[in-house]
Amino acid sequence: MDVHVADHPLIAHKLTYLRDERTDSPTFRRLAEELVTLLAYEATRDVRVEPFEINTPVAPTTGIKLSNPKPIIVPILRAGLGMLDGMVKLLPSAEVGFLGMIRNEETLEVSTYANRLPDDLTGRQVFILDPMLATGGTLVMAIDYLTAKGARDITAVCLLAAPEGIQHLEEELADSDIPVKVVLGTIDEKLNDKGYIVPGLGDAGDRLYGVV
Ligand SMILES: O=P(O)(O)OC[C@H]1O[C@H](OP(=O)(O)OP(=O)(O)O)[C@H](O)[C@@H]1O
Ligand SMILES: O=c1cc[nH]c(=O)[nH]1
Ligand SMILES: [Mg+2]
């Protein structure tokens, strides 16, 4: 597993306001969108492209375009939806699939309640979006789900991660030959006894969309 932690003052600045409990939902949504756009720069470093010929007003030249099949972006509902627009802005021709997953607040076990994805992901580059990598249970299950459909090129983009979640993911993927890349805004200190990231930002879904 390849873990990349963003090291950029603009990302740290925006994360600070995202974390602040005084930040309201509209501002939180805007910051999540801006942050994913910055992280997408690293996440898409290996996006597949192919050359094609164009003419500038001055001369012919060779440019590049995204190869087919196009990448697929998979936000993990709910909170991952808050990152979708920012990612789609950078990859407008990508397809979008959806995975709805929820963590039981007491047991921290994850269950899948919705999915809308192609049956076959063979040969597709997949970008998973989820702001929080806490215990890692959700991301492990999402990666299992996508690899069962044939995905072999997976990048996860998360705003905050706990060291425990990264370790869990590393252990789960240790015997796998699937090259998963994880791009993170930052790594926080730890998880608390309720499975929340510390200092974190609270419940990302609730802060984006309200408490349900
Ligand atoms: O790493 P984990 O311990 O699995 O936790 C991370 C998950 O928890 C949150 O989702 P939540 O279950 O709160 O659903 P929501 O997005 O609908 O609020 C978050 O968006 C991740 O999907
Ligand atoms: O801190 C956390 C952990 C999991 N999910 C969240 O939304 N926040
Ligand atoms: Mg939540």
TrEMBL record:
Its EC number is 2.4.2.9. 5-phospho-alpha-D-ribose 1-diphosphate binds at residues 78, 103, 130-138, 203. Keywords: Allosteric enzyme, Glycosyltransferase, GTP-binding, Magnesium, Nucleotide-binding, Transferase. Residues 5-210 form the Phosphoribosyltransferase domain. Allosterically activated by GTP. It is an enzyme of class 2 (transferase). Its cofactor is Mg(2+). It catalyses: UMP + diphosphate = 5-phospho-alpha-D-ribose 1-diphosphate + uracil. It holds the Pfam family UPRTase. It comes from the Bacteria. One of its GO terms (biological process) is uracil salvage. Pathway: Pyrimidine metabolism; UMP biosynthesis via salvage pathway; UMP from uracil: step 1/1. InterPro entries: PRTase-like (IPR029057), PRTase_dom (IPR000836), Upp_B (IPR034332), UPRT (IPR005765), UPRTase/APRTase (IPR050054). Uracil binds at residues 197, 202-204. Binds 1 Mg(2+) ion per subunit. The magnesium is bound as Mg-PRPP. The keyword Glycosyltransferase applies. GO terms for cellular component: cytoplasm. GO terms for molecular function: GTP binding; magnesium ion binding; uracil phosphoribosyltransferase activity. Belongs to the UPRTase family. Catalyzes the conversion of uracil and 5-phospho-alpha-D-ribose 1-diphosphate (PRPP) to UMP and diphosphate. HAMAP family: Upp_B. This is Uracil phosphoribosyltransferase. It comes from Intrasporangium oryzae NRRL B-24470.
